Amino acid sequence: MFSEEFKRKYALSDQGLKNVKKGAFWTVIVNLIVMAGAGILYMLMGSYMAVIIEKAGLPKALVYIVAVIIFLIVSFLTHLEQYKSTYGLVYGEVRDLRISIAERLRKLPLGYFGKRDLADLTETIMGDVNRLEHVWSHCLSYLNGAYISTAIIAVILFRYNWRLALSCLWGVPVAFILLFGGADIQKRNSLINKAAAVKVADGIQEAIENVREIKATNQEEKYLEDLNNKIDQHEKIMRKGELVTGLFVNGASVIMRLGVATTIFTAVKLIMNGQIDFMLLYLFMIIICRIYAPFDQALALIAEMLVSQVSANRLNEIYDTPTAEGTDSFKPKNHDIEFKNVCFTYDDKEVLHDVSFVAKEGEVTALVGPSGSGKSTCARLAARLWDVDSGKIEVGGIDISTVDPEILLSDYSMVFQDVVLFDDTVRENIRLGKHGASDEEVYAAAQAANCLEFIEKLPQGFDTPIGENGVKLSGGERQRISIARALLKDAPIVLLDEATASLDVENETKVQNALSRLLSGKTVLVIAHRMRTIEAADKIIVLSQGKVIEQGRPEDLYQDKNSTFRRMSDLQSESVHWSI
Questions:
Q1: Does the pLDDT of residue 338 top 90, yes or no?
Q2: How far apart (Å, rounded) are the C-alpha atoms in residues 151 and 144?
Q3: Which of 475, 522, 466, 523 is nearest to 499 (CA)?
Q4: One domain, residues 72 and 194
Q5: Which range in 36-45, 147-156, 171-180, 510-519 is most confidently predicted, on average pLDDT?
Q6: CATH number of the domain within which 305 lies
Q7: Domain stop point among 320, 346, 371
């Protein structure tokens, strides 16, 4: 039970807990070996005192030389093992943690990312993991090893003289009581600091993403002023937090070091009363110089250890979020998509209510309706990017909630209005549609998507880097690369979400021609505001406020003079004529 709590408190895996235990073990050994070195000094001083007081012969130097050599060798070997068991193992653990987080994020539903701030999530993956890495490597093993080795040494000291032992050690528990007593204050400051840091990251990210709009509206000065205010506020919060932490840490260090004074005071009194001799005082003074050493680094980092629990909680939140699971087998009898009484809520707001319709294989099914009616939500639910709250969605008679999303998506191609391209070549961006596709397959897909006319004009053709998110290409060119990617995948189900909404008439015509090749014989679910985009649809689903209010063939819906579909079509036609 304790192990599970400890693991969760510091976001440790089973292997990470083993590493901490191993590091603590070698820390104990190192601390005891160091104390053994103090024992050599004690014996050497005893021999020297015997020469002075008892006029004994000089001690054999060879014995002490051999003892020192053995001590140095053993000390080196144990320190080496301690290093391997703390730093070496921890770095491997951090590598595994980053991979584990990436794997976890890959399996989380899309809705999770919609609810998390991107800058906050980035801070968790990078900043929080770095903070935990430092705590794992510098603090946990050292501190727990210090606890154990100090307890062992304390037992030995109490057997020598309980008064001196008490005078020497009383400051250790008091110092830690003070430090841990202020844990809640330090955690609260850490949360405030983290929130301020996220605001700064958000401000920087926002300024970079919207730099053109900021310049176009002459808002540079305002944005820089806002960003400076956020940075100044973060700096003030950091200073306050570090001041509070410094007070607790330095206060604990001072209290612990008071043990030196109380030990000297007690020892002098005992010597004057004839209860101990000088050699026992010497022994305690050697030990007291070393017994605090394991805590020196720990005290400096223990505040960070307390703060790291905030970082651990943020990581645990990722692991506590349920993943989208399912079977590894998906063999539908066909690729009809059927919504059965589907309800879906997002951010406590019902987006879809009792939605039912069928998108048949070999047909184009169009979802239309005003903004916010739930069209894009239906498309994302159909690909299990989100899971429904109630009802179910079937593909070929199989409930998609029972299928692993990665297996399910192998049968889907998606082309969205907001195309995502990578800072790579044209060839590799198209090849994302099919892992391991040959250059000939990539060329054929680009040709079918009407991409060759602009690719061949690029400086290096298919091998031309296109910049972050395809910044070197126009909107129509980026859209056609996205379609080429979908053509290369050649999946039986195609989802189109406003694929031509932002294009001019010429580019829209080219993209429509490319889409006609992509859609042939597929199950197609298309979302569009422009009636031109869906004029060849086999079936229309009209949504309003998350409900299906009309469905049928476009010509049948248009014949009904009171239908919402006819009203939308007429309004758009009037708008087009007016603009002309």
A1: yes
A2: 11
A3: 475
A4: yes
A5: 147-156
A6: 1.20.1560.10
A7: 320
Tell me how crowded residue 151 is: count the other CB atoms within 10 A of its CB: 11
Q: Which residues pair with 338 in a beta bridge?
A: 358, 394
**Among 539, 514, 512, 535, which residue's Cα sits nearest to residue 525?**
539
Q: Under a CB-based contact definition with an 8 Å cutoff, are residues 261 and 270 in contact?
A: no
Q: Quick check: 340 and 392 in contact, CB under 8 A?
A: yes
Per-residue tokens: 42 = 């004690």
Give the Cα separation of 504 and 531 in Å (integer): 15
Residue 575: the pLDDT is 46
SS3 (DSSP) at 351: strand
Instruction: Judge whether 93 and 15 are in contact, CB under 8 Å.
Output: yes
Residues 311 and 394 reside in one and the same domain: no
327 is a domain residue: no
Say yes or no: 559 and 496 in one domain.
Answer: yes
DSSP secondary structure letters along 480-495: HHHHHHHHHHT-SEEE
Domains: count for the chain: 2
Amino acid at the residue 343: C
Strand arrangement of the beta sheet that strand 523-527 belongs to: 412-416, 493-497, 523-527, 364-368, 539-544, 547-552
Q: Domain range for residue 549?
A: 337-579
As a residue count, the chain comes to 580
- What number of H helices and E strands is found in the chain? 24, 10
Report yes or no on 414 lying in a domain: yes
Six token digits for residue 460: 């290096």
Last residue of a domain, one of 320, 353, 371: 320
- The answer to whether 375 and 528 have CB atoms below 8 angstroms apart is no
For residue 27, what are its two tokens?
Answer: 């820390």
Q: Which residues contact 218 (CB under 8 A, 6 or more apart)?
A: none
CATH of residue 441's domain is 3.40.50.300
C-alpha 137/C-alpha 23 separation (Å) is 9
Do 365 and 525 meet the contact criterion of CB atoms below 8 Å apart? yes
CB 422 within 8 A of CB 432: yes
Q: Is 331 among the domain residues?
A: no
Q: What is the pLDDT of residues 34-61, one digit of tens each?
A: 888 777 777 777 676 666 666 555 566 6
pLDDT in tens, 425-480: 999 999 988 888 899 989 888 888 888 888 888 889 999 988 877 778 887 788 88
Does 329 fall in a domain? Answer: no
In the chain, the largest separation of any two C-alpha atoms, in whole Å, equals 124
pTM (2 d.p.): 0.65
Tokens coding 68 = 């020192």
Q: Report phi then psi at 34, rounded to 5.
A: -60, -40
